[in-house]
Amino acid sequence: MVLGHWARSPFGAFSDVMLERADGHRVLFAPSRQTARFIADTYVFDDVRVVPVEVTVRDGTWTVVAGPVQLRFTTGRRSALALLLRAVPRSLAARPMWATAVGVPARLFLGVRTHGRARAGRREWYGAHDLHLITTATATYDGEPLGRLARVEPPVRFGFGSTPRTPSLVRVTTTVEHGFTELGK
Questions:
Q1: What is the per-residue pLDDT for 184?
Q2: Ramachandran quadrant class, 181 (left: phi over 0; alpha: psi -120 to 50; beta: rest)
Q3: How far apart are CA 125 and CA 173, in angstroms?
Q4: Residues 6+ apart with CB under 8 A from 158
Q5: What stretch of H or E contains 96?
């Protein structure tokens, strides 16, 4: 499960939930048709649902309700990697060239990709600013428990990237370039 919690976007502040079930079925829960269309045009889903998505945060505990999905998780202290991420000026970390430059170490150490091609001729870059490990989590889908907190294996398949292997709250700046076409194609 991936929670997108967008403080700023072309659509204003919003949250969405991407869920890959154990059978591989990928579902997007988005709060409006506009956000659902943008996300579904960028990532791959088998089902897209427009539902209210509510997120509350209190004392390091996040509570999420998105239609049939309920999620509650608690974050721990920052990791050593987070201290490194926070040392990079945010204005630099948010730039696509920085995401490209740190792509190999991010893939080797965290199993994530920081840049790549998305659907609809788009390119994306993820510039990480902070990272907290998730220490506890409970989640249900249609009232059924989704199991215990565990490593993300195999990686989720929403797009070119994935999440860190260890469940984490990662603050990123996402840059999406529309209409990229490679010369000769």
A1: 33
A2: beta
A3: 8
A4: 2, 18, 20, 26, 43, 44, 45
A5: helix 96-101
